[in-house]
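Bumping my old thread because nobody answered last time. Still need a sequence for this structure:
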């Protein structure tokens, strides 16, 4: 990973989904595109706390490869919610259809790759039955292949005028094929998620509660129900009216309300006991769920 971000040309406009105005210390490198996929660099060289929004776009999937030795980010939306520590070469993967919000307070540098759904559909066209891709979200995951393929693209990002389009195309195709193999698969396009059976619903909820303690993941729960992660998440929402993450938050809120009403624990202790990241996160979620702060709710419930 010898190419520095400073060697890359600065893009005149940030990539799609970056917002109308990016903070001065948040920078985007040259963007290379081919056949429904694109690659660019994104870095932050400040020390102040930075909020990174990611509105739902439905455009496809975003793969990030960390170029820096250490980077922490707190993700507060969707299945990736939590505090994640990235080392050099760690990846994250998310569906651009899902809303996303993150907070960082230290410099970072990522090589980012956006893959449209059309990009994967071109691969699916080789199948006998119509299919669509489903990829599981991950964050701060060590991967043995993707960082090396991302590194192979860095010289092209640093010197776009000298880029071999065929080389970039083949690397992007290789990365897309690997993502399908390692982090998901194809599911029949005509398959529509139905309701979870009572057994699967109860099993999923029990496993989601254990997920709070870090004992399982969404793909683990989906496999236990003999479903893809994408199918499970849609079926769960159809069954309960909530995404798995929303359901977990509702369980935490219910526990927190019980403690607020029936114990003398401080707000910070309630936040820790109910598996919120910290008291600030507890306050935000509680206000979103009830319309008032935990302190006000406790006084009214007394």
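Sorry it took so long. Here it is:
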């Amino acid at each position: 990973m010898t190419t520095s971000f400073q060697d890359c040309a600065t893009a005149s406009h940030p990539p799609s989904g970056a917002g109308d105005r990016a903070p001065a210390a948040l920078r985007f490198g040259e963007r290379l595109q081919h056949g429904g996929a694109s690659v660019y660099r994104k870095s932050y060289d400040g020390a102040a706390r930075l909020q990174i929004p990611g509105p739902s776009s439905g455009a496809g999937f975003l793969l990030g490869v960390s170029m820096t030795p250490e980077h922490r980010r707190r993700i507060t939306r969707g299945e990736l919610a939590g505090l994640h520590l990235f080392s050099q070469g760690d990846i994250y993967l998310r569906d651009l259809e899902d809303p996303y919000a993150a907070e960082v307070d230290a410099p970072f540098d990522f090589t980012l790759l956006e893959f449209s759904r059309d990009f994967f559909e071109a691969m699916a066209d080789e199948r006998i039955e119509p299919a669509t891709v489903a990829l599981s979200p991950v964050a701060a995951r060590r991967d043995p292949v993707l960082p090396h393929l991302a590194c192979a693209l860095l010289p092209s990002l640093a010197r776009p005028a000298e880029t071999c389009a065929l080389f970039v195309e083949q690397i992007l195709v290789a990365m897309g094929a690997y993502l399908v193999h390692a982090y998901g698969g194809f599911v029949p396009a005509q398959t529509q998620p139905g309701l979870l059976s009572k057994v699967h619903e109860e099993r999923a909820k029990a496993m989601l509660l254990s997920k709070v303690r870090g004992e399982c993941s969404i793909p683990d729960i989906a496999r236990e129900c003999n479903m893809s992660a994408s199918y499970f998440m849609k079926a769960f929402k159809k069954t309960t009216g909530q995404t798995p993450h929303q359901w977990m938050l509702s369980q935490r809120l219910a526990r927190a309300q019980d403690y607020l009403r029936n114990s003398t624990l401080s707000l910070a202790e309630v936040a820790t006991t109910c598996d919120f990241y910290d008291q600030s996160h507890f306050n935000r979620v509680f206000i979103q769920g009830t319309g008032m702060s935990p302190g006000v709710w406790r006084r009214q419930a007394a």
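The radius of gyration is 21 Å. Let me know if any region looks off to you.
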